[in-house]
Structures are given as C-alpha cells and as structure tokens.
Amino acid sequence: MEKKIEIRAYKDEFYPPVPTKATKFWRTNLVYQIYKFLRLNYKIMRIVVKGHS
What we know:
Layout: H1 21-28, H2 30-52
C-alpha cells in the first residue's frame, strides 16, 4: 500500500507578510517616490555616461 503525501498549501506560512504602517507610508508617499525615481535615474545616467566616454 502506498503512502499518500498530504499537501497543505493554504497554511499561513505560504502567504506574504502584511506590510506595516511605516511600509505603507513609504510606498504611498509621493515625495519619497519622486526622490527614489530621480536617484535611480541619476545612477543609470552615470553608468551610461561612463560607457560613452
């Protein structure tokens, strides 16, 4: 007789964690998002300029 493996896919450990209030704040803060956008673009432009010189 074969043993059947029981799969429990709906346990709590299979769901992503719930973000905290601070995480939600930083994800929705428009000023911070603009800052991150500009910082990332600056880093990319530095790489591009180095490659073309």
